[in-house]
Amino acid sequence: MKKFVFDLQDILDIRKFEQQQAEIELGKALGVENEIQQKLNALAVRQASIQKTMKGSTDFNDIASANQFYSYVRTSSEELMNQMAQAKLITEQKRKILKECMKKTDALESLKESEEQEFNQELKRKEAKQIDDIVTGRFNI
């Protein structure tokens, strides 16, 4: 009995590999986004704790250092927000690349499935013809 062989299997394997690489790259980009978001969250938590400790404080040095920290938080937040915007752009590019890879892979996989179905149908037709020939006593010479 013949076995199904997909002529474009090597190309399909390459496309699957490209898709896996695109998934890895997207994961890295999302990791960078998460890292930036964690830094922003940490700054917000530190700012909230400073605000809490400064509430009701009358010491001028504490107030001055808190104001310096607030200006540091503003500049750091702006810088991190710019980095986040750039990271989001990169992530969107990686998503588009992954989407294209998935389209190419899906197209080849659907082609493989349709060819495999045709192969199996042809195989069933041949078996049915052989069974019919055996039953009716005809032999092809």
Secondary structure blueprint with pairings:
Layout: H1 9-54, H2 60-136
Helix pairs in contact: 1-2
Keywords:
141 residues; 2 helices; mainly alpha
Q: Please trace the helix and strand order, writing H or E for each element.
A: HH
Spans with pLDDT under 50 lasting ≥5 residues?
Answer: none
Instruction: Report the portion of residues in β strands.
Output: under 5%
The number of E-state strands comes to 0
Sheet having the most strands: none
General shape: rod-shaped
| Mean pLDDT value | 91
> Structural class, judged by helices and strands?
mainly alpha
Query: What is the radius of gyration?
Result: 32 Å
What percentage of residues falls in helices of 4 or more residues?
over 70%
Terminal residue distance: 20 Å
- What's the helix count? 2
Q: What this model shows, in words?
A:
The chain is built from two helices and no strands. With 141 residues, it is mainly α. Helix 1 runs antiparallel to helix 2. The longest helix has 77 residues, at 60-136. The radius of gyration is 32 Å and the shape is rod-shaped. The chain starts with 8 loop residues before the first helix and ends in a 5-residue tail after the last helix.
